[in-house]
Amino acid sequence: MKHLFTLAVSGLAAATAFGVADVPKASAQDQLTIVSWGGAYQESQRKAYYEPYMKEKGVKIVEEEYDGELGKLQAMKDAGNVTWDVLDVDMAHAIAGCDEGLLEELDYSRIGPKEKFLPDTVLDCAIGSIAYSTILAYDADVYKENPPVAIMDLFDTAKYPGKRGLLKKPFGNLEWALIADGVSREEVYDVLGTPEGVERAFKKLDTIKKDVVWWEAGAQAPELLANGEVVMTSAWNGRIGNAVKEGKNFKVVWDHQELDWDLWSIPVGTKNIDLAYDFIKFASDPKNMSQQSKYIDYAPTHVDAIGLIDPEIARNLPTYPENMKTAISLDWVFWADNNEELTKRFNAWLAQ
């Protein structure tokens, strides 16, 4: 399988990167359709990017939501009528969309210098917008003393009895299972890439299988904690951050957080490619990118934006140095190659 991954590359001068003509002044009929994931995340994009862009550029932004699947985009391309202009993708769909010819190969001279973005967020067909992570979270009202502090505590039902929540997918869970079984974060994918490693991960998951409540949508994880169905859960850090802002006494365990990224992309066939580039350049500007963390606990991918964030906000982000000490990055090249097989294995294991 062809992977169109490109890591951050040095040696591209900023003057060259920005040495392109400005997009023509917007006219009254200019409109940009941007598709994202809905909820609090899309609300944070609206406040940080959409509203400021519309005010500055005079372009109307029409928002749509999707579930991450690219089938609709494929159908629009096949029909010769692509109505999406900018698409927020996760890493898995960034790779798939690029391989399948659904996403434009980006011209970085129209966005910004590659070396200014975090490694692994500069792809041929997508540019990183936020860093988020899967973390372990617990209710501090339940654990007033001796709270969980490490991923291995998720698997310790003797010390921490009770139900625990996990995403109903193999990715992330298999990595944590191996880490809890003593595999170093540097060796996780080497081990998981072998039949023996897969068996080892599932054997470790067996130890908590009867105690797991499976969640499938991001909003479910904090809900499970709030209603007492689980004593701890995996969750996307931004969801827990929002729950804390709403008054919940939840705590994040940053041990072996699993870093992931969302990215901007441009669908092949858009009729507004110049405006699409202009928006992505606007959203990739460090001053603009630094604003999103005010509204949700996700971190910017532009290195200069990270330093512009209020320190009180920064300490709750995945990229905060203290939180990064044991972080692992989900390897989406590995999952692109192995997702189908491991998902079948995972579903069969669930049914046992």
Write the layout of secondary structure elements.
Elements: H1 14-17, E1 31-36, H2 39-57, E2 60-65, H3 71-79, E3 86-90, H4 91-99, E4 127-139, H5 151-154, E5 164-167, H6 173-180, H7 188-192, H8 195-206, E6 212-215, H9 220-226, E7 232-236, H10 237-245, E8 250-265, H11 273-284, H12 286-289, E9 299-300, H13 303-306, H14 311-314, E10 328-329, H15 332-351
Parallel strand pairs: 1-2, 1-3, 5-6, 5-7, 8-10
Antiparallel strand pairs: 3-8, 4-7, 4-8, 4-9
Helix pairs in contact: 4-15, 6-8
Can you describe this structure?
With 352 residues, the chain is an alpha/beta fold. 44% of the residues are buried. Helix 4 crosses helix 15. The protein is 37% helix and 18% strand. It starts with 13 loop residues before the first helix and ends with a helix. Mean pLDDT is 91; it is low at 1-24. It has 2 domains: 14-131 and 262-314, D-Maltodextrin-Binding Protein, domain 2; 133-259 and 325-351, D-Maltodextrin-Binding Protein, domain 2 (3-Layer(aba) Sandwich). Strands 1, 2, 3, 4, 5, 6, 7, 8, 9 and 10 form a 10-stranded mixed sheet that branches. It is built from 15 helices and 10 strands. The longest helix is centred in the last third of the chain and has 20 residues, at 332-351.
State the CATH class of the largest domain: Alpha Beta
The major pleated sheet works out as: 10 strands, mixed
Number of helices: 15
**What is the CATH superfamily label of the largest domain?**
Periplasmic binding protein-like II
Beta strand %: 15-25%
CATH topology term of the largest domain: D-Maltodextrin-Binding Protein, domain 2
Number of strands: 10
**Overall morphology:** globular
